Structure prediction request, 354 residues.
Amino acid sequence: MQEIILSAHIHSVYSDGLLTPPEIAGEAARCGLDVVLMSDHNVFPLGFDGYYDFGRKKVLLLTGEEIHDQTRQPQKNHMLAFGIHQDFSRLAQNPQALIDAIAEAGGLTFLAHAYDPALPMVGESDLSWVDWNIHGFTGLELWNNLSELKIRVGKAWQLALYALLPQFMALEPPAQIRAIWDDFLANGQRVVALGGVDAHTLPQHFGPIQINVFPYRYHFRTIRNHVLLESELSGNAQEDERAIMQALREGHAFISNDMVYSANGFRFCLDTGEKQVEMGGSSVFRGGLALAADIPAAAECRLLCNGKIIDRAHIHGRHRWPVAQPGVYRLECYRRFLGRKRGWIFSNAIAVTP
Ligand SMILES: [Zn+2]
Ligand SMILES: [Zn+2]
Prediction:
């Protein structure tokens, strides 16, 4: 399996971001990313997809879209669409029609910041997902780097702290979104978890001084998706896009906060004795099954089955858990960083069916 590093949910000058898509690719190259998935609000800028070569590092930029009904108040139900090649915002008023049309076109849909409470001190309203009468979407954004601000900030001083030192903010994906995800999984629905940065970069003026709050570089070093591909990227943008979208669709990926520690090399799979089932996969229950993990640095790991923690262990390196019952299994890893225990790695799920 080839592991690539991908940052998703990025805004550019075509909606409310600070940089152009090529400038964003440059920032991504400096941060060691392989792929960036763009998603401007209700617009699909044409002509930017492809590889950007910065000498020592090449970055594949793929345009997607973040779609919501702009006539709705407040403007809830933000949908991320990737693997698409045209604007779909005309369908924003009907989330199910949007999901169906994007699936028909071969694209992927992720519910963005499904829990996103109001933050009145900066005039931000609650933008949570509310229309749950939907089916057939690819997954949900388990962790949104910008939206976490709305959850962590209670007082004005915290807002100032996180604006200046955002590395203190990213703690873990909201419990509310994890609960939504676990409910879908426990009900047998295949829902892929994606990490999103929601990168904009917000210029703030303090007299003559301009500070770019939450710069792209901060986002690109923090919440990342490590995607596992069957083979190395070929350098052909269309071919590589297909392989990346297929791996995301299947959930062959995990989310990590790489500022805590590099999560390269993390693995979580089901060993059936005959084959290894990757994250996102499933297998029928029988005797002798084991879950196996490789943890690249010492961490507190929590194994969950149907949303309940069934084991907590300090692990560094390889670990195995015999599978005693059917269920949907996923792994969370925590490490200390900047004085606090933080969510570090969140695997996609493996289903063991009855
Ligand atoms: Zn949004
Ligand atoms: Zn966004």
Remarks:
- Helices lie at 21-30, 95-104, 148-152, 156-164, 175-186, 216-221, 237-250.
- The chain has two domains: 2-257, 267-353.
- The longest strand covers residues 290-305.
